[in-house]
Write a structure and sequence with these properties.
There is one protein chain. This protein has 242 residues and is α+β, with helices and mostly antiparallel strands. It has eight helices and nine strands. The strands form two sheets. Strands 1, 2, 5, 6, 7, 8 and 9 form a seven-stranded mixed sheet that branches.
Length: 242
């Protein structure tokens, strides 16, 4: 048991040090428009007509930022514009003393330059840093079911860690993703994404999507240690350590 814990903690350290640079299928954690267009071109005609192709086309046409997403923005030249903003139902955010800023059609990877361009209407050469959070539901056999705001560049497996890890009878290999209460990724697809270290963005996930963790046949399992990062958790879980 001691050896198992040491192994997991070592994996956690490696995951934490490399998470920001993780690249899956040649893509960064936040997909650019060029990468999405290229992935669409590389799909077979059958793939373009299925869920994956439809998802990419939707992202290219409508962007990633949805009502309910949270935007964290810092503006060096004007601290009144710095803070956390919730995207409204019309796809805009409202910051003090300026007109609403529309984020419709904007990819997450385009958020920062888009905001910088918008703020140039009011400030000269503004220095802007910005990021988004998506609200993901986690249900089923986890320690703390609920909604969690996560950076879209997070490894998808981080959602299980955010929810406190598995409950005593949870089985990470029986995790599915649902959208609008309908299956979106089956357990095989989720398993592949977890092992690859795919980010929420690379999976095309958005606010309101739900990770559901199924029940293990036997309840004789240990709870996952919440301190273990998502990539290390995925490696450990699928290696059969839990």
């Amino acid at each position: 048991m001691r050896g198992t814990l040491v192994t997991i903690l070592m994996l956690a350290g490696l995951a934490a040090s490399g998470a920001a640079q993780v690249v899956v299928d040649g893509q960064r954690p936040l997909a650019t428009r060029e990468e999405l267009e290229r992935s669409l071109q590389l799909m077979t005609p059958q793939e373009r007509d299925r869920t994956k192709g439809k998802l990419v086309r939707q992202r290219l046409a409508e962007g990633d930022i949805l009502p309910g997403d949270k935007i964290r923005m810092s503006v060096v030249a004007d601290t009144t514009l710095s803070g956390s903003f919730t995207v409204r139902t019309d796809g805009t955010i409202v910051a003090p003393n300026i007109d609403p800023i529309s984020l419709r059609g904007v990819l997450r990877s385009e958020l920062e330059p888009h905001l910088a361009r918008e703020l140039q209407k009011y400030l000269r050469n503004p220095t802007v840093t910005a990021s988004s959070l998506v609200r993901i539901a986690v249900s089923g056999q986890v320690a703390r079911p609920g909604f969690y705001d996560l950076p879209p560049e997070s490894a998808a497996s981080e959602v299980i860690v955010a929810a406190g890890g598995l409950a005593g009878d949870g089985d990470v290999q029986k995790t599915i993703v649902r959208r609008n209460a309908e299956p979106f990724y089956d357990k095989t697809e989720v398993r592949a994404a977890f092992i690859a270290g795919s980010s929420l963005d690379q999976m095309g996930l958005q606010t309101g999507d739900e990770f559901f963790v199924g029940r293990r046949g036997s309840a004789n399992v240990l709870p996952i240690i919440a301190a273990v990062t998502g990539i290390a958790f995925a490696v450990a879980a699928f290696a059969g350590l839990f």
